[in-house]
Write a structure and sequence with these properties.
alpha+beta; FAD/NAD(P)-binding domain; 5-stranded parallel beta sheet; about 20% strand
Length: about 425
């Protein structure tokens, strides 16, 4: 019986462990923290967006960086397979807006518990508080020796599932990159993905805590070419912007800033459901209805109260001016601010705050079917450690589950 050691007990590590055990291997999972699945337990604000309900072919389009590498893995263990697997494990699921799949309980811990329980039922030995120090290639007997403080374990195959650099408190501290380099693997540039963004203008940070729903946010290059556009919810913070659509857009925005070393112009449409013509007619009606009121006192029907002082300053219209005195050009300025409120993104927050790490072990050096190293037979990779990342929406977790499944399946096979 082959002995397989998995280093890292996150989403990909747990899936790899259970998959290898199902394949008939003796499996030991080593986790540096006090329990497995620490990062998985906090995903989706503790709700765990486990995967997407998109058709597999559409799902594969959600990985802008090296998505083709995942073609085989996702076809071997697809999002449909993941949904079926969790429901078989006693975790009922639901589909929400944007094809996002969550446990009905809205409890990420339920997903973690199901994965751990499945692994143990398959005979996986889970050792927590066990940080791997190094991995040695054996010249005889077992293929590898996995060394940790206080001992070592011989292995016929080793699966590295240590995660990236995001949320280091959960155990993702980049250990796997050093192990990969030890066996000749190249690590591509590491940077944050799915991350809040920092901004230049002071008025943005003055709105700290304000959440805007049903708005449209567009990002532009310096030359005016559109980078990305999203509709939904965003949040102003003490450093800039965050929220669902910001995290989703940050992947492309970060890629542009990383490549070109330039800032990004953002354009906020506060009323995307209304055309400019329709909105202009509404402004005219409001100004006529409240002719005697001051401009600052009629904005409450259009904007949240916290945004009004900032909006007044940006529009350039005197707050005390009565609506009956508003000129056409002033009304156009108000319209411009409502449809195209602009500000500048200067960078991303630190990688430790990212949901996922962009970059990692070069996929050119990994067999896309098996996840085995092309340089070191018996060494496999899974999850965020690989140079593959997707947009927000359950895609990164699905990549972790799919690559973990393949790594475990093939690591267990006799040579």
């Amino acid at each position: 019986m082959r002995q397989v050691v998995i280093v890292g007990g996150g989403a990909s590590g747990l899936m790899a462990a259970g998959s290898a055990a199902e394949g008939g291997a003796r499996v030991i999972l080593l986790e540096k923290k006090d329990r497995p699945g620490r990062k998985l337990a906090i995903t989706g604000k503790g709700r765990c967006n486990v995967t997407s309900a998109l058709e597999p072919e559409e799902l594969l389009k959600q990985y802008p960086r090296n998505g083709k590498f995942l073609y085989s893995a996702i076809h071997q263990f697809s999002n449909r397979d993941m949904i079926s697997f969790l429901e078989t494990c006693g975790v009922p699921l639901k589909v929400e807006r944007g094809h996002r799949v969550f446990p009905v309980s809205d409890q990420a811990e339920e997903v973690v518990s199901a994965l751990v329980r499945w692994c143990r039922q398959k005979g996986v030995r889970i050792l927590c508080r066990t940080a791997v120090k190094r991995i040695e290639k054996e010249s005889r007997g077992a293929a590898y020796s996995v060394v940790y403080e206080g001992g070592s374990i011989d292995a016929d195959a080793v699966i590295l599932a240590t995660g990236g650099l995001s949320y280091p408190g959960t155990g993702s501290t980049g250990d796997g990159y050093a192990f990969a380099k030890q066996f000749g693997h190249c690590i591509t540039d590491l940077r944050p993905g799915l991350i809040p963004l920092t901004t230049q203008e002071a008025w943005v940070t003055q709105l700290q805590g304000l959440s805007l729903k049903n708005i449209q946010l567009t990002a532009f290059q310096e030359d005016g070419k559109k980078i990305n556009e999203e509709f939904g919810e965003m949040l102003f913070t003490h450093f800039g912007i965050s929220g669902p659509i910001v995290l989703s857009m940050s992947r492309d925005i970060g890629e542009y800033m990383h490549r070109h070393k330039k800032h990004v112009r953002m354009q906020l449409d506060l009323k995307p459901a209304l055309t400019e013509e329709t909105l202009d007619k509404r402004l005219q009606r409001d100004f006529a209805r409240y002719a005697k009121k001051q401009f600052k006192n009629v904005l409450s029907e259009l904007l949240p109260s916290k945004l009004i002082p900032v909006f007044l300053a940006l529009s350039g219209v005197a707050p005390e001016k009565s609506c009956s005195e508003m000129t056409k050009s002033e009304r156009r300025e108000v319209l411009e601010c409502l449809k195209r409120l602009s500000f500048t993104v200067t960078g991303c927050r630190p990688i430790k705050e990212a949901i996922v790490t962009c970059g990692g072990v070069s996929i050119k050096e990994i067999n896309p079917k098996t996840m085995e190293s092309k340089y070191a037979p018996g060494l496999y990779f899974a999850g965020e450690l690989l140079d593959v990342d997707g947009y927000t929406g359950g895609f990164n977790l699905q990549a972790a589950f799919s690559t973990g499944y393949c790594a475990g399946r093939y690591a267990a096979q006799e040579r």
